[in-house]
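Example with several molecule types.
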Amino acid sequence: MTNESSNSTTSNSNSTKENLPKSDSVMKSSDDKPQNQKKKYYKRPLRNFYNKRKGNLKRFSFKKVSILVPLYNEEESLKPLFVEIKDALKKISIDYEIFFIDDGSTDNSLLIIKEFAKTNPKIKFISFRKNYGKSAALQLGFKAVTGDAVITMDADLQDDPAEIENLLGKLDEGYDLVSGWKKVRHDPFVKKHSSKFFNYMTRLMSGIKIHDFNCGLKGYRKETVKNVELYGELHRYIPVLAGWKGFKVTETIVRHHPRKYGVTKFGISRFFKGFIDLISVTFTLRYIRRPMHLFGFMGAIAFFVGFMISAYLSYDWIFKNAPLSNRPLLALGMLLIVVGVQFFSVGLLGEFMAHNSHDDNEYSIKDKK
Ligand code: UDP
Ligand code: MG
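Resulting structure tokens for the full complex:
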């Protein structure tokens, strides 16, 4: 690809030369000659340098990449991060924008990104008045970015901007979302291991076969970010949300670094919240259009078991004259019938709501004419 591009640049410049009007050379007098030679002498090395530089740059099919960085109180990391992002972008030949989303920082983070923004119109930022959470920051960023490829990364230097190239390469293979996989993780012991379990459960329940759902470093095609709706703390499940909408999801191994400055913004509560979110995400995605398949099924089973128990007790009572007052099974039978009816009713209500809130936007459209 690289050779091809440099060749094409060379052939272009040759053809331009050939296309020069002949009258030009006729008009040239003899004392123009040394000037011409001089021109030739300077032009070639410059052109070679330019071609070589362009040839060294990685090329992708994207026109513009948006780097999206959500941040909350990361003042120490921002400057080195900015330098690293710029260095990484110098190695690729795509136009870019860098979007910082300040999630209501109370330190100097906003002042620092404002300084960055002054240096270059390609550096943009949005600042929340208060802390809404990483999902909100990402969601707003997803709406705001204009690139046809989007790379998200954390602001704490744990994610390596040098991986931008790697992620874009994977996207160029035709994937809609590439999730980073921190195969070698530099996090505290508890987080590392609980995260393994969490990823295993998510893989199992969602059917999306990747190892690391919650990596901050991810690459997306524009269509993916414009179609994924994040709320609450669903940033942990972006690959699930996208995968369920039919986007092609994959992963690539990325480098990970220990946190150098500041502290993590998610405490131990992340695991409980994350787990509840996992249940709600998988059930919502699966059954939002057909609640009766979940509640109706569970209700029917509970009702059937309860009914059989009650029928058996009734038979004993009617035909064998057995007293029911000392049969704990009676309570179970009645409970299961009540629970069964409850589930069924919830399912019916769900069906009514699903029917009324029908919305064409929920279908993820790949192409149309
Ligand atoms: N973050 C955010 N809003 C929050 C919490 C975190 O924008 O309410 C950002 C944070 O600044 C960082 C990224 O999300 O850039 C990941 O946060 P953190 O490093 O604390 O998470 P961890 O690496 O511990 O999972
Ligand atoms: Mg971090």
